[in-house]
Amino acid sequence: MSITVALIGRPNVGKSTLFNRLVQRRAAIIKDIPGVTRDRREGDARLGNLNFRIIDTAGLDDSNSESFASRIMDQTKTAIHTADIILMLVDGRLGVTPFDQHIAKMMHESGKKTILVLTKCEGTSGDLSIPDAWGLGFGCPIPISAEHAEGLSDLHDVLSSCFRENFDCDVDSSKLDKKKKSLPSLKISIVGRPNVGKSTLLNRILGEERSITGPESGLTRDSVSVEWDYMGRIIQLVDTAGLRRRAKVVDGIEKLSAADARRSLGKSEVVIIMFDGSVEPSKQDFSIASLAISEGRAPLIVLNKWDCVKNSKNQLLGYNNLISRTLSQAKGISIIPLSALSGNGIELLMPAVLDAHRCWNQRIKTAELNQWLAMTLEHHPPPLSAGRRIKMRYITQVKSRPPTFTIFCNLPTELPESYLRYLVNSLRDEFNLLGVPIRINLKKGKNPYVK
């Protein structure tokens, strides 16, 4: 049995800092201003011998606009409903505020086991808040400092006791970790410019309101990772923040969000690049696509908001021509027109994702590669270099993900780029490596007669 713990509290009380401490990496964006976290974020936490699922939530605040606050509240209510245990965080420096009392009332009404944690208590800075914290009705508060790892042993003892008393399970869930690692998984990131519908697509795939959506641009800040079961296969979907041109990014939080999105892209296997299909593509759309290809990921283009397109046939033809010219390094990339809001065309997405992943993982026999190389050289040999013939003797695939090949030749530095592109395109057509980046490395073989 896996136990889920949710972090609940006002903005800027240290929920994301504690989340990062428990998952043992910088997963959530941290900045010393209120309201940085918006979507709930999940991760695998470890505290001593305790292994559990942790949920980071947005800060509950009554100062947001009514519609935006209600969307945040819905996400937090979902986290409270999902969790087995609540860690209610209170800023130990500021003490208990009236809104902390309001949140405590919500926790009592939820009926969930709640542990009160005083954060930012370096040394004795939170001692004055302990008497007021007792009045919230959750027993003895636990003063900690997540940033400096102080008080975590006390939190471990309380959580361990709570696990044993309220849940009939072994607190050391290493068996669960081993089982989880044995499951086949596929990591997919959804990237694109702001407000192209990335979060809406994630919600449509999952069939639930997992990420906050709305007409406002730039709602998503943290990269939201969600595990999803697709036909018995574990899929890890990652919704990322919108990427704008670097010159236009001046806000510190947006810089952190963009860096987090690029980091998620680099760790993915398949990258869904979302375009707004109702308008003409911009240079930034292709810059994001080129980034995914240069990182060696398996790319896939989704034309969202397709229900708003009037002449869809001509629009799709124009997109196909433009993408094939601009993204020639991933010739044959799949293009899926759909509407994430209505769900039209969504059934085409996952088969295309799995096809791209299969091509990205493909391995080709060395004998077949050398047969192809011999026929290619016979049909179109490389040009001479200063009167010398470039001899290509042998080819082998050194790795997949993406498909990477090494060709042994006598003059590797003299082969023109145009001929190398010809080899890539011929290799792609011969072995059906459509839509994935292909890398060819040239290497000079050793002369066996030289001592």
Number of DSSP strand runs? 15
Strand percent estimate = 15-25%
H/E series: EHEEHEHEHEHHEHEEHEHEHEHHEEHE
Strand order of the largest sheet: 2-3-1-4-5-6
Overall CATH class of the largest domain: Alpha Beta
N- and C-termini, Cα separation = 64 Å
Which superfamily, in CATH terms, is the homologous superfamily of the largest domain? P-loop containing nucleotide triphosphate hydrolases
Question: What number of domains?
Answer: 3
Radius of gyration, whole Å: 27 Å
How many helices does DSSP assign? 13
CATH architecture of the largest domain: 3-Layer(aba) Sandwich
Q: Which word captures the global form?
A: elongated
Helix content: 25-40%
CATH topology of the largest domain: Rossmann fold
What composes the largest sheet?
6 strands, mixed
Low-confidence stretches: 173-183
What's the overall average pLDDT, rounded? 88
Based on secondary structure, the structural category is alpha/beta
Q: What report would you give on this structure?
A:
- The chain is α/β, with parallel strands linked by helices and 451 residues long.
- It folds into 3 domains: 4-179, P-loop containing nucleotide triphosphate hydrolases (Rossmann fold); 183-361, 3-Layer(aba) Sandwich (Rossmann fold), CATH 3.40.50.300; 366-444, 2-Layer Sandwich (GMP Synthetase, Chain A, domain 3).
- 36% of the residues lie in helices and 21% in strands.
- It has 13 helices and 15 strands.
- It has helices spanning 15-23, 66-82, 98-110, 130-134, 152-166, 174-182, 198-206, 252-267, 283-294, 312-326, 349-361, 366-379, 417-431; strands at 4-9, 41-47, 50-56, 85-91, 113-119, 142-143, 185-192, 224-230, 233-239, 270-276, 298-304, 335-337, 392-399, 404-409, 439-444.
- The strands form 3 sheets. A 6-stranded mixed sheet has the order 2-3-1-4-5-6.
- β4, α3 (98-110) and β5 form a beta-alpha-beta unit.
- The model is unreliable at 173-183 (pLDDT under 50).
